[in-house]
Amino acid sequence: MLRFHFTPEDLTKVRVATEPHALWEIAVSLHRLQTREGRWAYAPWFHTACASLRGAGLERTVKTFLLPLFPRASYFPDFLTPPEGTQGLDAGLEAVLATPSERVMSEVDMLTRGIGAPAWARRLTDLDMRERLVDALRAYHRAAIAPHEENIQERLHAERARHAHTLFHAGTEGMLAGLGPTIRWRAPVLEIDPYPDHRDVHLGGRGLLLIPSHFCWNAPIALADSGLPPVLLYPLHHLPAVTPHADSPPLNLLLGPTRAAILRASATGSTTTEAARRAGVTPTTASHHTAVLRDAGLITSHRHANTVLHTLTPLGAALLRTGPRGR
Question: What is the arrangement of strands in the sheet containing 189-192, beginning at the earlier edge strand?
């Protein structure tokens, strides 16, 4: 179990990343390539990413250079996911290059003691080797993640809107309580269970940066070094990738294709503009359909400033979940 201990000051310093963290998404997307766990949620991405990596001639680079540094295990080096990654890929890669050699060596040694690191990993203390790593990370991002950035960005913005709504109505503690099924808020402690190891992180006034992640699956992740600025990467909710194919005809017949698309968008929290984009209609048209879905008890809508956030009601979630088998 991982436990974050909050002081009253820490509760005023909880932040949510404004943009996808490019290097964390690289790390956990590499984890998705190493396991079939949750593959259903990423099936379209998996096939297109593999094809893109093959077409770019990056298969060997990923297998022999990147995967050994990002094992799907209890530890991989913290310097590979610097906080600057929230400012974009370039800023994150610059931070990787600027990491002091002593820290690189220490973290590579920790990886070696854990599950083993390739012999060449110790050469990452040399700037030229880290430049090779940065080039490989950039090429991987271009092939496997960049084509999906718009969708990732949209989902993260929906998550931020959901948090803004919760924060407005229930405060920071309410927001912490709604992060996910494996994250529990038991004031003044945020517990993550299960977790690969047992750790207590005392925030001590530093606050906590929450990073919603598209490619993180099931279990949240924190930095191994509790002395670094505290972050918690946690997974966004995923609907099965097969939903649009398996569930669309019955839902389309019942609701119409536009309302069915808006209902699905509401599963992860969606603004009117985002729902309109998902459904391929104008925001004005989407607003009409959200009103119909709201009157039918399938979604609920909450306004915060100039934004309206639509989320599923239990009835809407049940309809979406049962799909063609609901009878």
Answer: 183-186, 189-192, 2-5, 199-202
